Amino acid sequence: MTVLTLFSLAVLACRAEAEVVVVLNSGEGTITRIDRQTYQPMDHFYVGREPHHLMSLPDNSALIVANAVSNDLVFLNPKTGDILRRLTRISDPYQIGFSPDKHWFVANSLRLDRVDVYDAHDFHLVKRFELASMPSHMAFSPDSSTVFVTLQGSDQLAAIDLHALKVKWIIPIGKTPAGVILTPDGKHLLVGIMGLNEVAVVDYKTAQIIKHIPAGKGTHNFMPEGDGRHIFVGNRSGDTVSIIDTQTLTITKTFPVPGGPDDMEVSADGKELWITNRWIRQVSVVDLSTDKVVRTIPVGKSPHGIFFEHHAARQ
Amino acid sequence: MMTWFETFMNGFTLTQAWVFEHCVNPLLPPLGLLAYQEEAFDATEFALVGMGEIALLILFFRPLEALFPAERWSGRRGVRVDILYTLLHRLGFIPLVMFVLMWPLTFKLDAWLRFHGFIPYTLEDLIPALENHPLPTFFAYLVIIDFFSYWLHRFQHRLEWWWALHGVHHSQQTMSYWSDDRTHLLDDVFTATFFSLLSLVIGVEPGQFILLMMIPRVLQSLAHANIAWRFGPFERCLVSPHYHRYHHGVGTGSNSGQLSCNFAVLFPIWDILFGTANFSRETPPTGIADQQEGRNYGSGFWAQQRLGCQRLWSALTLGKA
């Protein structure tokens, strides 16, 4: 067999296995799988009640879909769409995350003012925190010692010590905080403040806000561009997405994205940004060479979480 | 090529998004409600579906009432107040108030239970075969909720204090397709409390079938319509306007205590099973017997609410509404 034939087979193999994008339609409890190459929806199926967020297992063996109202976690094979198993009796898992050391699995219960810390190995509940109110998004410190949680209803940012399993501090952060993310250098937290249309920069070691970065209306959620420097932030009420330079802590660019831009993913090659458009049942694809929406893909009601198997670096 | 249904849904989605982004969302920050943006988006949908539902009622049921009236009236003046009740309910004002009032029950109690190790069940937890089958689950909820609605309705007649409030609904002497939502606000509170507690036991039905969710509400409007319709061989399957009119009839169903019948909301099977069905062909006038002796239940919204409270007080203190 010639090298050329082997190469052709390899190309065919790659083509045969579509690169899958998974979108959660929280308002109808379904998943839409999309072929990233053709931009065509592949299938659409029921997964549970109010699936909002999803993430890969630390060993990438499955994708976890958190069904908030079904009180369960669904383990999904994103390539085939097969449901591998359903872990029931997980209380209201809205936003989920694994600590970087893969020791903890944290689930925020936005509806019921709870943050649940599970052992990531067997998903048994270790500690349940009552935090008023509306625990929304989360981020972990690089050393996995702390999880930071925005409290959307009480305008606060909380830090939970995962070693001592105690609330370390809670600070006022601004009206209706949403997304929270660590800067690539690990020094600061960025918090999307929906009610103030800005990003608050927090020195989490001193629990101090050190800067306010004006952004767009309804500053909501983040996604790193993958270059170790820039981070996208969606402005859900203003229908725009901005780019933050984390070295200068300034907004460098803002471009329009329709219909309530929410969760985002960046392709591994850094060429495309995919965004769920919460109010219009669509996913937008932005060409990052022009920062323009080049495609919209119909999905289900109230699309929220989105996942690429092959995505840009998360920092 | 899009189907008509896809075209309709696209149009609805864009309308909802436009109304939300231009009329509702801008109000949230000044009202301090931005944290409830997603709930506000759902409420926008509820209101728009309610508008569509009311349009359908007028379009279909009004001509049917003119063509096949069960009763002939000299005018429709008595119907007007029921239009207000319908708008308040189906455009979401009263459901919104109930949602806020029930918050401690549905969320705080739920959260408290979970903090003490109890995670409320859904129907799929109790019947695993329903897992991954949202449509059968939706219909299972429809039947179960209808069963509990039947029993709730029986208690609305059986308990004197509850009948004092439920009398608002039964006092309509010109019952039409607008009359379904004519209820006392305290009656709404008790009903909402009951169903909030029930939701802690069996969960809430899958919410994605927004058009299907219209069907029971439209059927309940039809059941109250002034239309001389029986459903023939299906009379025992689905509550017809005639069947429900008999429940509202003076001296037939519109009574407190045990002298009532036809309590079913959607499916008469509950009346048949529990011995309260009456498939009489008679068409009695609607209202409450003591109205014919001059008792006033009020003609306007506030008068009906005030008099309902007075009857409740009498029932609680004197034992008679």
Low-confidence stretches of chain B: none
E-strand count of chain A: 28
Strand order of the largest sheet of chain A: 3-2-1-28
- Secondary structural class of chain A: mainly beta
| Percent helix of chain A | under 10%
The helicity of chain B comes to 55-70%
Mean pLDDT of chain B: 92
Query: Strand-and-helix sequence of chain A, N→C?
Result: HEEEEEEEEEEEEEEEEEEEEEEEEEEEE
Shape category of chain A: globular
Distance between the termini of chain B: 61 Å
Strand content of chain B: under 5%
Compute the separation of the termini of chain A in Å.
Answer: 42 Å
From the spread of the alpha carbons, the general shape of chain B counts as: globular
What does this structure look like?
The complex is a heterodimer of chains A (315) and B (321). Chain A has 315 residues and is mainly β. Chain A has a domain at 19-57 and 76-88 and 257-314. Chain A is built from one helix and 28 strands. In chain A, the strands form seven sheets. Chain A has a four-stranded antiparallel sheet, with no helix packed on it. Chain B has one domain. Helices cover 60% and strands 0% of the residues of chain B. In chain B, α8 (160-170) packs antiparallel against α13 (301-318). The longest helix of chain B is centred in the first third of the chain and has 31 residues, at 37-67. The termini of chain B are far apart.
